[in-house]
Amino acid sequence: MRPQLLQLCAVLPSTQAILDDTYEVHRLPEPPLRAAWLQDHAAAIRAVVTGGHLGIETSLAAQLPALGIVAINGVGYDRIDLPAMQRAGVRVTNTPDVLTDDVADLAILLMISLLRQLPAVDRHVKDGQWPHAQPALARRASGLRYGIVGLGRIGRAIATRLTGFGGTIAYSGPSRKDVVYDYYPDVAALAAVSDVLIVATAASAATKGLIDAAVLAALGSRGAIINIARGSLIDEAALVAALVEGRIAGAGLDVFENEPHVPPALLALPNVVLTPHIGSATVETRDAMGRLMLDNLAAFFADQPLLTPVV
Question: Which of 143, 188, 278, 296 would be a feasible disulfide site paired with 218, CB 3.0-4.6 Å?
Fold first, then answer.
């Protein structure tokens, strides 16, 4: 009999085909039908497949007595109570490394799009305005002071890309790394010496609201912020206020505090570039993520070492 698995997120068709061939896959019903489904199926569920942006509610995991693994099709695990999983003997895996390049690319894309006003000039041409007027001058993206919050896998990949821009690179994080970039243990101090502040650190309870009003004030009216990590890392209300009041120059955001809902004030601002959490959204990367997630599941059911365990 095939192992029974609860799937909480969508995956590529190629990944889905393997899941469907290998496991008895269940989808969680909407709340009106959930209690009856849990009564009928919860005891048999051995694995959960989820996305980093979704995780799994601790209360739901607690109703799955046979649960042995939560396999995340993504890198983030801030939506999972890891201590609770450890106490319950549930393993958690994610898919690091395979999405690093795409997320780093998006950080650079957001920075250039914001500073060179790409959405506005694209509309200028498409709306037929070019024969009648020139768009407003933009800002140079090269030769600036770049600050990276978090120099993990993705932060390092962003720094590598920025070395070709001819500016200076500095970073903040819990500890100094063996790199040539200047280190600032305090994020506000990093913001004060940055023209562009790029948020690339992991989300956790400790980093919630890390980019607060004080950090934004230190960034200043000429500073721009880019976030490709998690929406929870920025105090979103403080960010909106700083943008509306012109206390920072702009923002390029791929992630938000309450996805997929974006603060309405951001939608009307000309000094922001918004994308719908697409850091890993290429065919190549999503395929690699799916394969790594499947390999972790296969290792678990074969009682082999997990490839990329979180806990």
Answer: 188
